[in-house]
Design goal:
Blueprint: H1 8-16, H2 21-35, H3 42-47, E1 53-60, E2 64-65, H4 69-80, E3 85-88, E4 95-96, E5 101-108, H5 109-139, E6 146-148, H6 158-167, E7 181-183, H7 185-191, H8 194-204, E8 210-214, H9 217-226, E9 230-234, H10 238-248, E10 253-257, H11 265-271, E11 275-277, H12 280-283, E12 290-296
Parallel strand pairs: 6-11, 7-8, 8-9, 9-10, 10-11
Antiparallel strand pairs: 1-5, 1-12, 2-4, 3-5
């Protein structure tokens, strides 16, 4: 399999979306190598003339919020280089209906069919996350609460998964363990207390925001007393979230976490917390149904 660099125009679109073209290329190459080793696509090689050209349309089979169109385009750009023409017909973050053509690629038929599955896998996966996130955004629209992701992302795809969350209207929590400090119960045990853990972090990383995870209202009070910038309310009931907001009085940002489901979203928003963390939008979103239709053309 020959690899090609992403063209400048597509690279610029990825950069504008907050993605690193080199990182996207690496993901694409891994996906392509999963499908083809040194022998390539043996079925296409045996059945398709090397000079045959066609057009492949990636089409939504179900309604949803799309994400990853430039990433899918990168599959064909890396695989086909100058032999393919790519037309992105929808934009990331767009809500589409069944039958919407998202992307069309013209080029050698063998190249199109080799790139079909990796492109669909990435596009369906990212669109699933965007669609799930958008459902939470809609459910929270009567409140000021925002849905946030977690680090429960697909290994190796965190940057893309979190990009898909943004496409769905959500906001990102920390990208990795160095973006912000999050004091959890095991850190409290290791450091000897919330105050001790907080002071140690501020001493070593004075400019980093510090979030403290608590599982009771008493622990919330302690976190506020040490000066936490954000408090994660872990497994609080709806009633406890409301009490936490009253205790807080705006001193810190409050984030609800603990397996809330979509049918609870409005109730969580009504408590007045700033954020609700939902791991399910990245680790359990059902794949959006997207298919590929080949159109044969005369040379």
């Amino acid at each position: 399999m020959q690899s090609h660099k992403i063209k400048r125009e597509l690279a610029d679109q990825l950069i504008a979306a907050g993605l690193n073209p080199l990182d996207v290329s690496e993901v694409v190459l891994r996906a392509l190598h999963e499908d083809c080793d040194v022998n390539g696509d043996v079925t296409s090689a045996a059945t398709i003339p090397p000079d045959q050209v066609s057009t492949l349309d990636l089409v939504a089979r179900a309604p949803g919020t799309v994400a990853g169109i430039p990433v899918a385009a990168a599959v064909f750009a890396v695989l086909g280089g100058n032999s393919v023409l790519i037309d992105m017909l929808s934009t990331d973050g767009q809500q589409v209906v069944a039958g919407t053509v998202l992307l069309s690629v013209h080029g050698p038929t063998g190249v199109l069919l080799q790139g079909e599955r990796p492109a669909l896998n990435l596009l369906s996966h990212l669109s699933a996350i965007a669609t799930a996130t958008q459902s939470w955004v809609v459910a929270l629209e009567t409140s000021l609460t925002q849905v946030r992701d977690t680090r429960k992302t697909t290994p190796g795809l965190r940057t893309l998964d979190k990009y898909a969350v943004r496409c769905g209207g959500g906001i990102n929590h920390r990208m990795n363990l160095s973006d912000a400090a999050l004091i959890k119960d095991n850190h409290v045990v290791a450091a000897g207390g919330v105050a001790q853990a907080f002071e140690l972090i501020k001493e070593r990383f004075p400019d980093l925001p510090v979030e403290v995870e608590v599982d009771s209202l008493d622990q919330l009070t302690e976190a506020l007393e040490v000066g936490a910038d954000l408090v994660l309310l872990d497994n609080f009931t709806i009633d406890e979230l409301s009490k936490a907001v009253r205790i807080n009085q705006g001193r810190a940002k409050l984030e609800a976490s603990g397996g809330f489901t979509l049918d609870q979203a409005q109730a969580v928003g009504d408590t007045g917390v700033d954020y609700v963390a939902v791991g399910a939008i990245t680790h359990s979103a059902p794949s959006l149904d997207i298919g590929a239709d080949l159109r044969m053309e005369t040379i």
